[in-house]
Amino acid sequence: MSQESSQDRRIEILFDAEKIAARTQILAGEIKTAGFADLLVVPVLKGSFVFGADLLRALHAAGVTLEVDFIFLSSYRDTTSSSGQVNILRDIETPVRGREVLLVDDILESGRTLAFAKDLIAARGAERVATCVLLDKPGGRAVEIDADFRGFECPDVFVVGYGMDLANRYRELPYVGRLV
Ligand code: IMP
Ligand code: MG
Description:
Blueprint: E1 3-6, E2 9-15, H1 17-33, E3 39-45, H2 49-61, E4 66-68, E5 71-77, E6 84-90, E7 100-108, H3 112-123, E8 128-136, E9 149-153, E10 159-160, E11 176-179
Parallel strand pairs: 3-4, 3-5, 3-7, 7-8, 8-9
Antiparallel strand pairs: 1-2, 2-11, 5-6, 10-11
Helix pairs in contact: 1-2
The structure holds inosinic acid (IMP) and magnesium ion (MG).
Residues 44, 47, 105-106 line the site of magnesium ion (MG).
């Protein structure tokens, strides 16, 4: 297993930069094939800013015309109960009525974040709301939701890198890994 070190911690690499890049290209092709028109891509901040940036460029390379806006959500996860609340810290500015929207997130775990975002955009009258996540941890689901497009299934461990953090550290790593 390949390891790196960052900020004095050793990190076991689960998905390296090449693997992520190759998968992102395939995802972009799948999204292209799904035939979106007038697509608004909405990365969910903060965690998806790196994946979102790479996916946007892969979509461009695949010939998808799009617009981008961002939503910043925070989820407070209480490990002792199933009550998790999602708050909007910064909303999109773009009207979505009649639009096709692709929500992009780093990880789908309990499903609360993506379910909240999907319901919000749908309630505003979007014509179609699809979701794309880099990682899926199906073992952690509290809400019934699946991503329409997903990069990799991720083991049930806390991961960092490629936008994902532990207390805002490790987002800069070009790979996804596990602190060991
Ligand atoms: P959900 O609402 O439980 O699906 O939460 C998904 C969000 O929790 C993701 O967008 C991440 O920001 C965060 N998250 C879940 N698992 C991890 C992890 O292993 N590392 C870093 N962030 C995580
Ligand atoms: Mg997130």
